[in-house]
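**User:** Hello, beginner here. Are you able to go through the protein record under this note? It all follows right here:
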Amino acid sequence: MPYDDLEIAWKPMPGALPALHAVVTPAQLVALCRRVRADSGRLVSLWGEDGQDSGGALLLCVVLEAAAQLLVVEQVLLPISPVYPDLSEIFPSAARLQRATNDLLGMRALGADDRPWLRHMAWPANCFPLRVGPVSPLLAPAAAEPYRFVRVEGDGVHEIAVGPVHAGTIEPGHFRFSVVGEKVLRLEARLGYVHKGIEKRFEGMALADGSRLAARVSGDSAVAFAWAYCMAAEAATATRVPARALALRALLLERERLANHLGDLGAIGNDAGLAFGLAQFSRLKEDLLRVNERVWAARYPMDAVVPGGVHDDLSADAPRLLLESMAKLESEVRVLRDIYDNHAGLQDRFMGAGRVTPELAQHLGIVGLGARASGQAQDWRATFRIAPYDDVEVTPIVRAQGDVAARVAVRFDEVFETLRLCRELLASLPQGSIREPLGAVRADALAIGAVEGWRGPVLVGLRVAADGRLLRCHPHDPSWHNWPALEYAIIDNIVPDFPLINKSFNLSYSGHDL
């Protein structure tokens, strides 16, 4: 067992993932986090849970990744004083997760930043929506609370406030720039404007029904969230998913990756002044979505992944249609890449803009595409190699420069890698059934599911009652770890480059704000 000297009583968790679970003391939690960090591991997620309806107390849940294994630890907190050690000094990305947990459950990290993160005066400071019981609709309006932005002072320094309402059709976020002239000294983001109460909505749902809500956590990652949810549900019920269904899930996930990379490559080109790129990649993305509609009867197959497998099988003609469309797509993307790589004006905007060095990326704990563009070879498909990725070789695409150019290059390379994976999945598609019914639920089951989505690692944690009702569901988007990196990436750049740098990350608001 890992870190035996810490005397943690690890137990293997059910399911396909290499995961261990333990209940720890505050001292053990801090010691474990320090050791994981020293071993180049990282924080995956952090959330709270109110277990008082089953005779328990408040629980802090922390998921760590170390040595190709997930470590799921829980600390029991007393309801009368629900405090726990501040983990943000060890893992900087814990800071906002801790603030959100305090807003939702009143669980406070000792000595940490205590500013509200999700609340936005939507409910009083002494009300905690994820505590056991219904949220009263008759709550008194919350008192106004001016948000305490960090101020930068000095000669010639002034602030520029951008958002939360933006000129384009994007989701709301507030960005406070401290600048001298156009040079950015500091950026502080405030998010949480699209908090929808998704975690509260999960409570009481039947286990078999939750995948539909999970698929709508962040619309551009519907397959990733649905698969992670279903993986957790299947672990909680010891359900064995047919091999054909797993291959079809991977095919759907890779096409979701393709659709988003195509859209981003066009949008990034447009933000650098190449409208031609937006037109061409929009056309290619539209072609891909139309093929999706012909094969899965939906441009965005939100409900294709279901507990126990997938909703529909491929028709006899679908593999031919998919392969032909991918061949055409690959040919056109190669031409467009040559244009992007040799366009002097575009490369002048890309190169050096929004740089996150490998050292900074590791310190901040950024993940997914953003991490791979900064020298971090992270990809759960290759790390965990769960089916069907145990039969197809996944090569993480890595660049070291950490700038917009690197994030564009990673997207281009991943398009070609994903097309290769899709061909391999279709060539080796197993025969057999596509779905199995969920088995019986283990009493008070805690289970997790984890998938490498197009943006990065997606995790879902579930607590399920013996009757199959959801007691707690926490869907975790990789944007939690990468939004803080954007604040560093813009430093010493100019304000007009912010839209380009922001788009090169393309982080989720909806999946982050929940």
User: Anything to note?
Assistant: Residues 53 and 302 are 32 Å apart (CA to CA). The chain has a mean pLDDT of 94.
